[in-house]
Each structure stands twice: as C-alpha cells, then as structure tokens.
Specification:
By secondary structure, the chain is an alpha+beta fold. The protein contains two helices and five strands. It has a five-stranded antiparallel beta sheet with strand order 1-2-3-5-4, covered by helices on one side. The structure holds adenosine monophosphate and zinc ion (ZN). Residues 4, 6-7, 46, 98 line the site of zinc ion.
Length: 114
C-alpha cells in the first residue's frame, strides 16, 4: 500500500465517490465537504505540491481546470458561481501531498479566505 491516499484512490485500492475519469485525471467528491458541492480534481501522476510543477505540466493543469469547470457547470453552478483552489504546503492548509484542485459551490464563499 502506497503512503499516498490519492494514489490509492487512483489505483482503485481506496473507495471514493468518483465523478470523472480520463487517461490522466480523476475527480471525486470530497469526503468532508465544505460546501454543498465540493469535488477534488487530481492528476493520476503523483505530484506532491504545486512547487514541483514546470512547463511540462501545463497541459495537464489546463485540463484539470477544464474538468473542474465542467463539473461545476454540469452541477448547475455556472451562473451562481464556484471557486477553484489549490492549497500549497502547510500555511495554505495542504493536508494531502498529491496535488488536488478543490471545486466548491452551492453557498456564498467568503473572501478573503481564512
Ligand atoms: P487539502 O487540505 O487542500 O490538502 O485538502 C485535502 C482534502 O482531501 C480535504 O478537503 C479532505 O476532506 C479530502 N480528503 C481526504 N481524504 C479523502 C478521501 N479518502 N476521499 C475524499 N476526500 C478526501
Ligand atoms: Zn499520490
């Protein structure tokens, strides 16, 4: 068993409420939702933090953002609004060290974030 929770979800060793999958990306519902709609979009490749990204990841990150948009729009939040967030390292609250794009919608989201 890998020590990375999200790699285990990608491999199918850990159950998740999957809502999207393609050759490079998986999306699933967050287990502890912070809004009526809260999904995580992740790459299948293990990338610990945003700090490891370089230009070779540009297409992957673009595709992840488009998946996030499609999920929010398909769930009916395109006009009301939604938020996409990558947390990087401890002061931003990153708890799982496999990059993930949060997609939050369904309530008024405060700004600035806490
Ligand atoms: P972050 O704090 O940005 O690293 O976010 C990690 C997110 O992963 C949190 O919102 C958790 O609720 C979520 N999470 C942790 N374990 C699981 C899991 N097994 N399935 C779905 N979401 C999870
Ligand atoms: Zn991983």
């Amino acid at each position: 068993m890998s020590s990375c929770l999200f790699c285990e979800i990608v491999k199918g060793n850990l159950n998740a409420d999957l809502i999207y999958e393609d050759d490079r990306i998986v999306a699933f519902k967050d287990i502890n939702p912070q809004a009526p709609f809260h999904a995580l979009v992740i790459p299948k490749d293990h990338i610990p933090t945003l700090n490891e990204l370089d230009v070779e990841h540009a297409e992957l990150i673009g595709r992840m953002l488009i998946v996030a948009k499609d999920l929010a729009v398909d769930a009916g939040y395109g006009q009301r609004g939604y938020r996409t967030i990558f947390n990087c390292n401890s002061e931003a609250g990153q708890a799982v060290y496999h990059i993930h794009l949060h997609v939050l919608a369904g309530r008024i989201l405060g700004w600035p974030p806490g």
